[in-house]
Amino acid sequence: MAHSTLQSDRINLRLVFLSDLNAIHELHLFPEVDEFNTLGIPTEINETRIVVDSWIYSNNKHQIENYTFIIEETKAKSFIGTIGLKLWNKKNNKGEVWYKIHPKYWNKGFATEAVNLILDYGFDELNLHRIQAGCAVENIASIKVLEKVGMIKEGRGRKVLPLKNGWSDNFEYSILETDPRKK
Description:
InterPro entries: Acyl_CoA_acyltransferase, GNAT_dom, N-acetyltransferase. Belongs to the acetyltransferase family. RimJ subfamily. The protein has about 180 residues and is an alpha+beta fold. It has helices spanning about 20-30, 45-60, 110-125, 140-150; strands at about 5, 10-15, 65-75, 80-90, 95-100, 130-135, 150-165, 165-175. It is about 25% helix and about 35% strand.
């Protein structure tokens, strides 16, 4: 990876380490964080370890296809959450962003700032043409984040997300390298 840390004034995005295991596991213990989680919610730290090990393995590949970062405060180094950029369809230079933020950092602009860093990295360093994101139609906070960074709602998938409370519709968002960006 050209840069192991992405930075703004308030936050750093750095690749996941095994030492992040406890913070990541604790993040998943908040029901409100995983309300819209489709990956399954690890209840045991060993389950979380399997997920974290796979992220570390992906981050250490020569050709990284799935970047997973820790979001932390620049000065205090406090854990804010996780964010990822999945690269797929290399021929078409596409990526997909996802994120999870600790509740004590909600409504403070950290998710928006982290997504903007990922967009910068994806377009400027990885030469992506398109970055997309999906979210449950009930996930108002993520909808606001995606629209704040300049992503455009492209459509709605019917009952595509298997959530804890049943199947949910999904909004698909994207931004192109040529689209105006919002910071």
